[in-house]
Specification:
The protein has ten helices and no strands. The chain is mainly α and 256 residues long. The protein folds into two domains: 1-70 and 214-242, no CATH class; 73-208, no CATH class.
């Protein structure tokens, strides 16, 4: 139930604010989950994990401050125009070609031994998942209006729902495959960075949200995303390290 409510909130966020802000902030679930697990489930959170939580929160604040303040696409007509843009269509063709190569040729041979194969498949599918989610929210605004565009909005919404459903199913399949072969902490950290990067790239090409972002804000968002990514890596990858702040007070024992 809580996961369903969280996804509903995520969907509403994509319809309300730019994608370049929502997607990176999805990482906040990792530090909050780690903190709650340390108190409720008595899981160990070492000093590196606590530092990672702090960095994730600090990077998220930086992202909020420097993110675009307005949407670049607010109506169904603008969405249809963006979807048919030759640059975005060309990008989708490249993504589809890469997915076909990864799924049918590279994954069967190298998937179980190379973590980047499954991560690349799931991340490339984000090029369809997040824009489809945002597009469904825009199209849904016109479905229940009695105007000539409501029928077109319904068809567009159904197409985007089909694309979203297929991409989510394929993502779940390869996420499960990855978790069977690799450590979940390492997979989660790398997956967040690659998935977010490709989603931001797809959103930038489709919605052009970066067009209203200045150099200072761009550098601020890049630093914020880097800070969040480092925090996620510290929480996920180094959580098994037996290291705490008390170790800093131990004398350094040297032998001749």
């Amino acid at each position: 139930l809580t996961v369903a409510l969280g996804q509903i909130g995520n969907f509403l966020a994509y319809t309300a604010v730019p994608t370049v802000l929502v997607t990176p902030l999805g990482a906040l679930g990792v530090p909050f989950g780690s903190i709650l697990a340390s108190y409720l489930l008595k899981e160990k959170l070492n000093i590196l994990g606590k530092l990672g939580c702090l960095l994730s929160c600090a990077g998220s604040v930086d992202l909020i401050i420097h993110s675009p303040k307005s949407e670049s696409v607010t109506t169904q007509a603008e969405l249809e125009e963006k979807l048919t843009n030759p640059v975005f269509v060309g990008y989708l063709c490249v993504v589809l070609l890469m997915l076909l190569l990864l799924i049918f040729w590279i994954a069967p041979a190298h998937g179980p031994t190379n973590i980047m194969v499954y991560i690349s498949i799931c991340s490339l599918l984000g090029s369809f998942t997040v824009p489809s989610t945002k597009g469904i929210g825009l199209a849904a605004q016109d479905i229940f209006h009695n105007n000539p565009s409501s029928q077109r909005a319904l068809y567009l919404c159904l197409v985007l729902l089909a694309v979203l459903g297929c991409s989510i199913i394929i993502q779940f399949r390869y996420i499960n495959k990855a978790l069977e072969c690799f450590d979940s902490s390492v997979f989660g950290a790398i997956y967040y960075v690659v998935f977010t990067t490709l989603v931001l790239l797809a959103s930038a090409i489709l919605f052009r949200e970066w067009s209203n972002v200045g150099v200072v804000d761009f550098l601020g968002m890049a630093c914020g995303f880097t800070t969040v990514s480092i925090g996620i890596v510290l929480i996920q990858v180094f959580k098994e390290f037996n290291f705490n702040i008390g170790d800093l007070n131990k004398p350094n024992m040297k032998t001749d």
